[in-house]
Amino acid sequence: MAAATTVPVLGIIDQLPLLVVVVPMIAAPLCVLFGNRTIAWILTFAASLASLLFSLHLLLQVMDGDVVSYWLGGWGPKDGGIAKGIEYRIDAANAFVLVLISLISTIVLPYARRSIEFEITKVSHTLFYCCYLLCFTGLLGVVATGDAFNVFVFLEISSLSTYVLVAMGAERDKRALTAAYDYLILGTIGATFFVIGIGFLYSATGTLNMEELSVRLPELGTNRTVQVGFAFVVVGMGLKAAFYPLHLWLPGAYTFAPSVVTAFLAGTATKAAIYVLLRFLFTVFNPEMVFNTDALSYLLIPLAVLAMFAGSLIAVFQTELKRLLAYSSVAQVGYMALGIGFLSTTGVTATMVHLFNHGITKAALFLVVGAYVLRAGTSFTDRLAGLGRQMPWTSAAFVIGGLSLIGVPGTAGFISKWVLLQAALEKDWWWMGLLIVASSLLAVIYVWRIVEILYLQQPRAGKEIAEAPLSMLVPIWILAIACIWFGFATEMTIGASETAANSLIGGRS
Amino acid sequence: MRHHLILRVVVKLLVAPIALFALYVQFHGDYSPGGGFQAGVILAVAFILYGIVFGLAKVHQVFPPWLVQKMAALGVLLYAGTGVLSLLLGYTYLDYGAFTPGHPEHGQHWGILVVELGVGITVAAVMVAIYYAFAGRTPRINDEDW
Predict the structure, then answer these.
(1) Quick check: A1 contacting B, CB < 8 Å?
(2) I want to staple A179 with a disulfide (CB 3.0 to 4.6 A). Which of A252, A259, A322, A353 is the partner?
(3) Residue A484 and residue A160: Cα distance in Å, rounded?
(4) How many Å lie between the alpha carbon of B62 and the closest alpha carbon of chain A?
(5) Where are the alpha helices (DSSP H) in chain B?
(6) Along the 146 residues of chain B, how does pLDDT read in single tens digits?
(7) How far apart are the first and last CA of chain A?
C-alpha cells in the first residue's frame, strides 16, 4: 500500500454497501459460538433485519440513478490506474434485489422457529441458523459485489450452505440426501463453468472488475476468447438460475428441503442468479455485441417459451404440492428469461418486476405448504383434501398466492405479466403475447386443482386438524397481503424496476 | 492398533514436533512460504495421526468434537472481526492500515498476522472435523479381520 496518506474517516452511511453483507456473515460464527437455539434465532433475525434496513437505505440512495462504490481494504484504483482490489458497487438494479432478498429472509425467519422445531432435530438448530445466515450472506454478496471473481466466491458460499440446508430435510425424508447431492453436482458444474468463463475474460482483458470489463470487452470486438468466456458464464449462471433445460436440480431440492428453506430459496436463490445474468448480459457484455444479441434472441427466447409451457404442464400432473410449485417456478423463471430476451428496457423492467413479485408470491405459497406439513404431516395433494375448512386462514392465503401466480388482475403477478405483455407488444410480437396468456391458463389448471382439493373435497375422516400457529400465520399473511398490495401500489415496484433496467441497459440501447 | 509398537512410539514422538512446525509455518507465513491454510492443515495432521494410531476415543479426549465446532467458528470470527475493527476505526473493511495510522505498513503486517491466525484455526478445526466425520462411521470390516 502507498505511504501514509490522510484517509477520510468513513461514517456508517459510507459503510452500508459492505455492512449489508458483513453483518449476517459475522452473525453466522456467533451462532455456533453461543450454541444456543434461542440466541441463534435472535442473532439471525437481527442480522436479517439489519440487512433489510441497510438495503432499503441503499435503494433510496440510488433510486435517482446514482451509484455507490465501496473499495474493500482501501485497494481502489490510484491515480486513474486499474483496480487492484474488490469493489462493491450498488446501483438501482442490485439495491432492488438486495431489498428483495433481505425482505423475504426477514419475513420468513419468525416462521422458521416453529417450522424447523417440527422438521429438524433440536441438536442441529444452531447449525441450521448458521448455514441459513451463510446462505443469506452469499446471496447478498453475489448481488452487492462489483467484482466478477467475488461473485463466484459468494456464489460458492451460498451454494455450499444451501446443499447443507437441503440435506437437513433428510430428517423427514431420506430422499433429501439424493436431492442435495444432485444439486451439489449440478451446482458445482454451474459454478465451475462460471469461473472458467471469468478466467477467459480475465485472460482477455486483465481485469476482474465488472466496470472495467464493460469498458474493455467492446474494444476486443468478436475475440474468440471473449466469446468462449461469454458462453461459459451464461451456461454456468443459467444452471444456477434454473433456466429451462438446466433446471433438473430444482424440483428435487425444493421438494425435499425443509419448508422454510424452500420458501427462502424460492424467493431468493434463483433471483440472485438471474440478477447476475442480467448484470453480465447487459453491463459486462454489451448488448450490441453480436454474439450476445444472437444468444439472447435465438437461444433464450425459444427456451424461455419452452420453459413457460413445459414447466406449467409438468406442474399440472404433480401429486406433491411442493414439487408442483417447484415446476411452476421453472415456468416462472421462463417469464423472466423472456423479459431478458426482449432486449429492451421494458423487457428488463418486466424481468425485474417479476423477480420481485414472483419472489414474494412463491415464498408465500411455500410457507403455506410448510404450514400444511406441520398440521397435516405431509404435502401430498391427496392428503390435503378439505383443509380449506380445517385451516381456513392458511388456505385463504394459498388462494391469494395462487391467484398472484396465475396473474389475475389485482395481484402482484398481474403487474409483472402486464409489463411483460407490454414489452412483447412493443416489439409487435402479438403472438408472443398470446403465448404468455396461454401459459398463464396452464397455471389456472394447476392452481385450481389444489383449490378444488382444499375446498371442494370432503376432509379425511377421523382427523382433527387445527389452524396453523400464529407465528406462522403472520408471516404467511404479510406475504399474502403483499401479493395484493403490490398489485395496486405499483409505483414502488415498477418505478424501482425501471430505474434498475435503465441502470442495466438504459445508457446503451 | 495395539500390536503396532513401532508406530505407536514413533507417533508419540512425532505429534509434538508436528504441532510445533505448524506454529512455525503459521507465524512465518509472511516471511517464508506458508501461512494460515498450510499451518492449519499441518496442525490437523498432528491430531489425525494421533487419532489413526490411538483411536478415535483417545483423540476425542484431547480435542472434543464440540470444541472443533467452536474453533471453526472462532477462526472465521477472528478474520471477519479484524475487518470490522478497521471499519470501526473509520477505514474501509479489511484496511489494516487502520491499526497504526502513522505507519500503514506495520498495520498491514499486524492485520495479516491476525487474519492468518483466524484462517489457521478454522482450517485445522475443519480438517479435524472432516476426519471425525469419516472416522466416526463404523467400518464394514473390522481392523483385526484383515
Answers:
(1) yes
(2) A252
(3) 35
(4) 19
(5) 5-27, 36-54, 56-62, 65-88, 104-135
(6) 667 889 999 999 999 999 999 999 998 877 777 788 999 999 999 999 999 999 889 999 999 999 999 999 999 999 999 988 888 888 888 888 888 878 878 888 888 888 999 999 999 999 999 999 988 876 666 666 65
(7) 40
